[in-house]
Amino acid sequence: MLTLYGMTSSGNCYKPRLLLAKLGIHFRHVEVSTVDGGTRAPDYLAKNPNGKVPLLELADGRLLAESGAILLHLAEGTRLLPADAYDRALCYQWLFFEQYSHEPQIAVRRSLLKYPHLAAHVTEKRMAALLDGGNKALAVMEERLSHAPFFAGEAISVADLALYAYTHDAATGGFDLAHFPFVSAWLARVAEDEGHVEIGWKPA
Predict the structure, then answer these.
(1) In the predicted model, what is the mean pLDDT of the chain?
(2) Which domains does the chain have, with CATH numbers?
(3) From the centroid of its chain, how far is CA 85?
(4) What is the DSSP letter of 28?
(5) Nearest C-alpha neighbor of 204 from the set 48, 28, 65, 39
(6) DSSP per-residue string spanning 48-104
(7) Closest Cα partner for 148 from 138, 158, 139, 156?
(8) pLDDT in tens, 172-194
């Protein structure tokens, strides 16, 4: 059985859980948190020296870190990774966008407001910059979604799951999605797709 190490409230850790749920793949969840120092514990660092979650452990013991890499590995040969070469490249494009233009703004601002232990990192200037950067990322998404139902074309893919994870909870970071109607409609489409689970879900 697959084992997924992750923090239940983290959007990055939600991504592979959401994918596994949509694919109907059984897995074991092991809670490892940055809040209580779990990601810095020696036994965890032995598995992932980078000290971050999520981390996927395959049935044969091999390990795979980074949410995007985990999504691509698990989605191989499924409906959630496009077979068409161009659509597949679009999927990669939006995965990279999520990590470099979206997550560093929207996820970071959410974390600074959500987790009390990060309060010392909150400054007016930083929060304003993150709000501006996040709104710019949402505007890019809005433009794309005004032309297509999903980021890699006509069908949902792991690019949508990656971007959904923090966008659906963007209000926690102070972002007003009412300004982005195409993004809001897309969020509903992702949530309506079969096998959907909420961010706090984990297998029993």
Answers:
(1) 97
(2) 2-75 (3.40.30.10), 85-192 (1.20.1050.10)
(3) 23
(4) E
(5) 28
(6) -TT--S-EEE-TTS-EEESHHHHHHHHHTTSTTS-SSHHHHHHHHHHHHHIIIIIII
(7) 156
(8) 999 999 999 999 999 999 999 99
